[in-house]
Amino acid sequence: MPPAETAWRDRVRAFAEDTVAPLVDDMDHKGRLDDGLVAALFAEGLMSVETPLRYGGQGLTFLDAVAAVEEVARICPGVAVAVDVHNILVTGAILRDGDGDQRRRYLPRLAGSVMGAFALSEEDAGSDAFALATVAEPDGPGWRITGRKRWTSNALAAGLFLVFARTGQRSVTAFLVDRDAPGLAVAEPADQLGMRAARTADLVLDGVPVRGDQALGGPGRGELLALRALTLGRVGIAAQLVGLAQGALDVAARYVTGRRQFGRPVAEFQGVRFPLAESAAEIAAARALCYRAADAVAGGAVAGGAAEAEQIRLAAMAKYVASQAAQRAAVRAVDAMGGNGTRREHRAEKFYRDAKVGTIYEGTSNILLNAIASELLCPGRPA
């Protein structure tokens, strides 16, 4: 790893251990990000990783953003969701698809203090992401958006929403919508099992007015924009799950080396050692695949052809393998710690709860397997 990448990873790891770790239990209990931590994430540059220096960002790479997500997830996967969504799904979409005016208008805000949220999912648009009921109807030179978005990560803290709506029978457009827009409201957050710091909420849009220059990349490009974002997003989630798995393994390893039974550390017993060794091997494999996928998509998703198919396949594989490694690592951590593994102060149980969502969001395991199988068995044919 180049020295610059190592220095960045070490910087993020130190921040996570020193600044995020003391707040984990409180955020999990309250089910929301700590306001002071949000400000610290911006001040540390973790919310502007790829944003060019001229817009107030760090001017780093997609791989640096992936590394940041992984390192934060070692301490708190929920905070890593906020970092991931903001950097990869929202800021990344503007970097890739925004015109010059949109970049100048929104990137400095997203680099400075305004958190971004990605609003695609709906009640009947989950795995079938484009079965959208939210519509944007023409209104003079702009539109009015009406609908309800579900499972919107970062909604509670966001100041800017990337909202996908139908602008015609076969047309989807992505709009950049400010939180204070008339007719926009954030509903009560979901009381969810895991990733509670990144608690999701519904977004209600009741005739929200938007101008023509708020259509990211122009009208009718929303479906392509979302597909590109989700390909990159799956790599980000893979990194988050690798970090989660590593965090669970770290917790378990510390515990079993200190815990004594029958006159010796429980780490000396094969029944404890071997499952943790399996986790270490699986995490290493998941990490390698994650960064292989990150390298493939680093330049942005290619429109069409074998290169795009390869990016989609690798992203799906990375997210699937990482989600399986995370679940197994979390289960083994709880098992290795016995009854104490179920107690909140040891954090294994939190990794256990957080790990489950990894098989669901950014493509369920079955959706990912279908994408992988389609490319394997019917190359070139859409999944």
Automatic annotation (TrEMBL):
**UniProt domain Acyl-CoA dehydrogenase/oxidase C-terminal: residue ranges:** 220-376
Pfam families according to UniProt: Acyl-CoA_dh_1, Acyl-CoA_dh_M, Acyl-CoA_dh_N
* Pathway participation: Lipid metabolism; mitochondrial fatty acid beta-oxidation; Amino-acid degradation; L-isoleucine degradation
The residue ranges of the Acyl-CoA dehydrogenase/oxidase N-terminal domain are 4-111
Q: Give a GO molecular function annotation for the protein.
A: flavin adenine dinucleotide binding
The catalysed reaction is: 2-methylbutanoyl-CoA + oxidized [electron-transfer flavoprotein] + H(+) = (2E)-2-methylbut-2-enoyl-CoA + reduced [electron-transfer flavoprotein]
Source domain of life: Bacteria
Entry coiled-coil feature ranges: none
Q: Can you give the residue ranges of the Acyl-CoA oxidase/dehydrogenase middle domain?
A: 117-208
**Per the UniProt record, which EC number(s) apply here?**
1.3.8.5
Q: Which cofactor does it need?
A: FAD
A Gene Ontology biological process term: fatty acid metabolic process
What's in the keyword line of the UniProt record? FAD, Fatty acid metabolism, Flavoprotein, Lipid metabolism, Oxidoreductase
Q: How does it assemble?
A: Homotetramer.
**Similarity-based family:** Belongs to the acyl-CoA dehydrogenase family.
- Protein name (record): short-chain 2-methylacyl-CoA dehydrogenase
